[in-house]
Amino acid sequence: MSKTIMIVDDSASLRQVVGIALRNAGYDVLEGCDGKDALSKLKGQKVHLMISDVNMPNMDGISFVKAVKQNPSYKFTPIVMLTTETADGKKAEGQAAGAKAWVTKPFKPEQLLGVVQKLVLP
After folding, report:
1. How far apart are CA 26 and CA 49, in angstroms?
2. Residue 33: which CATH number?
3. Does the keyword RNA-binding apply (predicted)?
4. Gap between the Cα atoms of 26 and 10, Å rounded
5. Is 64 within 8 Å of 38 (Cβ atoms)?
6. What pTM does this model have?
7. How far from 40 is each of 30, 43, 81, CA to CA, in Å?
8. Using CB atoms within 10 A as the burial measure, which of 11, 84, 93, 110 is most buried?
9. What percent of the chain has pLDDT over 90?
């Protein structure tokens, strides 16, 4: 059975690039255009990993991580932050909220897939 990964980013082109890399690696992909949109798509189905941007309209990535961690179905789902944000303060905030890894844009798809393979739930 294939594993499902959710991509949350307000950039459609970035969701497309990440989505193609993940689909080519055999994953199913769910997409959200911001934190609020992504939360509305989490209906209790199994999601093995989430990849989220930090700076988004409506609900930013850190708020999204906090909201996900409060949902019993997704409490243990690993979340990777994929962002242009390099400030240590933001990273600390992300980790405190429950993010498991921080990948900086621009990134190489192989680099992201490496992180995904390490963290994705069995």
Report:
1. 14
2. 3.40.50.2300
3. no
4. 24
5. yes
6. 0.96
7. 12, 7, 19
8. 93
9. 98
